[in-house]
Description:
By secondary structure, the protein is of the alpha+beta class. It is built from nine helices and 19 strands. The chain folds into three domains: 2-74, Uridine Diphospho-n-acetylenolpyruvylglucosamine Reductase, domain 2 (2-Layer Sandwich); 79-226, Uridine Diphospho-n-acetylenolpyruvylglucosamine Reductase, domain 3; 236-351, Uridine Diphospho-n-acetylenolpyruvylglucosamine Reductase, domain 1. The strands form six sheets. It has a five-stranded mixed β-sheet with strand order 1-2-3-6-4, covered by helices on one side. Strands 7-8-13-11-12 form a five-stranded antiparallel β-sheet. The chain starts with a strand and ends with a strand. This is UDP-N-acetylenolpyruvoylglucosamine reductase.
Amino acid sequence: xxxxxxxxxxxxxxxxxxxxxxxxxxxxxxxxxxxxxxxxxxxxxxxxxxxxxxxxxxxxxxxxxxxxxxxxxxxxxxxxxxxxxxxxxxxxxxxxxxxxxxxxxxxxxxxxxxxxxxxxxxxxxxxxxxxxxxxxxxxxxxxxxxxxxxxxxxxxxxxxxxxxxxxxxxxxxxxxxxxxxxxxxxxxxxxxxxxxxxxxxxxxxxxxxxxxxxxxxxxxxxxxxxxxxxxxxxxxxxxxxxxxxxxxxxxxxxxxxxxxxxxxxxxxxxxxxxxxxxxxxxxxxxxxxxxxxxxxxxxxxxxxxxxxxxxxxxxxxxxxxxxxxxxxxxxxxxxxxxxxxxxxxxxxxxxxxxx
Length: 355
């Protein structure tokens, strides 16, 4: 049922998410311009209507009951290159945009190839993979400030970027991303220095080396596809929200206690993955924790299971409900906590439900 050219009532939301889960929205508005997006947000704010923003839908877990409010689908478009400066509309497909920068011979985001979702979502999560993250090249975010009721431009330094975090994620009710701007690099058709050991190893080069841009992108796409992290409608391993849990970052005492639990459980010589995370903190691997706690690839017997390709992805095998996915997520989270004393935190945003 249509109530205007760009709005529908009782609208299914599951098809707008990569998990293909969740009930309908009371109202769904599709915004194809920045002005239309701001109007839709202002209308919801003025009427006190709950608001849900959806773009690529790759980071959303929506309740089976749906959303009792207005969902706004961000379908804005715009890709502009000025030398090495890139501006993207929030609704631009991120993976397509990365491919275009590689084709243009510009380095800086090539290892973020294949990540599903929209450009506007990248600063919210400070999206990162294979040694690159958005914070390293992002210069500005143009956003609608719901508190000030004005469009603002935030410099990268004002975005509060941290591992899979930003001020947009910390205060999700305030800003609506409209545009993102990046400073890329012309390295003569070569990539930025490779920072991820797995990528460098696969290419037979040292960490820190540069390779042809298409080579870097294609290698990342191959790695992602092997883990079920490139969208494929025929492959249920890709019916996911990508990595469901973030890698834990532990203070010194927390990591020492965790390492002791690892030795107790796995043997005196066992040692967990450990990566410096600044200020006496250490990052470890969520995938390692999940696997060592007994939740291996393909785990589960119901309609929601761990991916057969990657333990970090929780997948819809085609007939799952959100309740099934959350039950699996809780089982994994609680099992890891019981085994190692570390509580995993979900990366996707939950709507109308909670872990």
